[in-house]
Amino acid sequence: MNEVRIAAISSEPLDVDTHLAAVDDPTLGGVTTFIGRVRDNDPDAQTPVVGLEYSSHPDAETALQTIAQKAAADAVGDARVVVAVSHRIGRLDVGDAAVVIAVAAEHRTEAFAVCRAVIEDIKTSLPVWKRQVESDGTTSWKGIGG
């Protein structure tokens, strides 16, 4: 049976080790992670990016749970998959983790596919918005997603 062991929206820093521990299972041989970090640049920015401010809808955590469940349910064949995913909100500085995903599956193919499905769905469906802050004080909303 596929499981989502973490699906969280958090104002606290995200911990990769917590996500890896959540998907740890001796029956699952493929483990993959994705970490989405705040970078110091954006093609649309005129000056360096110094941070992102994430805000979320009150139902964002439920939406994240649904995203993770759907990705796990869509795993290839009868593969067993376990998912842990969190998205951060609040002010994040360059280098901070905004998204952490860990997926364990019987084989690497399923682990990679589910991890990718989760992040792609987050980018298009999760009700989390980001406001980009540049070094000159300019801000811009970057839309829905991580």
Largest sheet: 4 strands, mixed
Structural class: alpha+beta
How far apart the termini lie comes to 28 Å
Cα shape? elongated
Report strand order across the widest sheet.
1-4-6-2
Order of helices and strands: EHEEHEEEHEE
Tell me the radius of gyration.
16 Å
The tally of strands reads: 8
Low-confidence sequence ranges:
none
Round the mean pLDDT to the nearest integer and report it. 95
Describe this structure in words.
- There is one protein chain.
- The model has no long low-confidence stretch (mean pLDDT 95).
- The two termini are 28 Å apart.
- Helix 2 (60-73) runs antiparallel to helix 3 (108-125).
- By secondary structure, the protein is an alpha+beta fold.
- It is elongated, with a radius of gyration of 16 Å.
- The longest helix is centred in the C-terminal third of the chain and has 18 residues, at 108-125.
- It has helices at residues 16-23, 60-73, 108-125; strands spanning 3-10, 30-37, 49-56, 81-88, 90-93, 97-105, 128-134, 139-144.
- A hairpin with a 4-residue loop joins strand 7 and strand 8 (139-144).
- 27% of the residues lie in helices and 40% in strands.
- The chain has three helices and eight strands; from the N terminus they run βαββαβββαββ.
- The strands form two sheets. Strands 1-4-6-2 form a four-stranded mixed sheet, sandwiched between helices.
